[in-house]
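ok so i was messing around last nite and threw this chain in just to see what happens. nothing serious, just curious
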Amino acid sequence: MELPLYLCVGLWVPLVAALDFKYHHQDAMEAFLKEVAQTYDSITYLHSIGKSVSGRNLWVLVVGRSPREHKIGIPEFKYIANMHGDETVGRELLLHLIDHLVKNDGKDPEITRLINNTRIHIMPTMNPDGFESVEIPDCYFSNGRFNKNEYDLNRNFPDGFENNSEPIQPETQVIKNWLKSETFVLSANLHGGALVASYPFDNGVPETGTKQGHSLTPDNDVFEYLAYTYSSRNPEMSKGNSCKNGASFRNGITNGYTWYPLKGGMQDYNYIWAQCFEITLEVSCCKYPPEETLADFWKSNQNSLIDYIKQVHLGVKGQVFDVNNNPIPNAIVESSGRNHICPYRTNKFGEYYLLLLPGSYTINATVPGYTSVLKQVTIPENTENFNALRVDFHFPFQVNYSVNTRISCSEVPLYMYFKSHSGRPKSHFITLILLTFVSIFHLK
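result:
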């Protein structure tokens, strides 16, 4: 007997067994990720970006219509969890997020449009050694926080404000290399031990506002909005005091420095050197809560996780071209009044992405040695359209830049350098900053 067409089609619908709400150790996590990658191979790409001290793979699953390579105009987004091995909820949230995305593609219009227009990188654990080392789960502290070499990975990155003498750990170096290989626009790293969305800076100098008890980036309005986007959809986080430990956060958000200063943090590194806006999400009062609570954590965070990804489509994006319509890499593209200490530059495709709230701005495109091009833009409310405003720049000359290299600032405390030369003429300071563009690496 011939089966009806709809039944035949139904037989080919890819299925992955329901992901249970329990802690998935390395073997179980790998098995799940590999099953997803095999079953949904047209929209996923699983790869190890490196190894931990103990040799465990640091897995990333990419979700998107072009999961294996960047497409011009499609922004790159990432989530990282379990940086502290004993902070475990984020690890499971990201596994359930993967499950939710792949199973709702083609069924849920919002998820489908998100996958159509975004390349989403998900790293469930940055510190698998720490996670596997925890013998007795504890709400407050265990040695699993650290990597195998007993270093805190969220104190291990180059710092923009003071020298960080800690030796770079293998997991940290893996992240740094990864950031150089992709044009990440927006990110969040998931932690535990509190309920709050924290935004940069974590460290600071008086010029960033430390004497007023905070340390703010030039994009503080965007960061406050991003943090609030996450917290407002989380019913417990938005209360601001759900942990009952004396800490209170208005609307469930905080400036990192205001909460407590730290040196060598990952979110500051992302913003200063990787051109990526990153916030830190503390998603559980208890660092390593019982398994039976994991379903509730997913329920509280599901909408926040999805809404936050959508914010990668804020603002303006585009390309910079020369007179022959060739893309110009390493052009500086900034919004007036929001100059970054390490200027944001175009990638090898001449692309730029600037996260900006709706409003009017002057966008300045500069190719060193040539006259700048300025454009006035008005950014509408458009995150629901999953497409930032496109504004391209065309320079009336030919530029002979190698597309195989990308210029970045030296990983020195740039703000300390700024402070030590703040009394000098502006032109001298600009020269000093330009001298920091000495780190050149090859795009992979």
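not much to say yet. The chain is about 25% helix and 20% strand.
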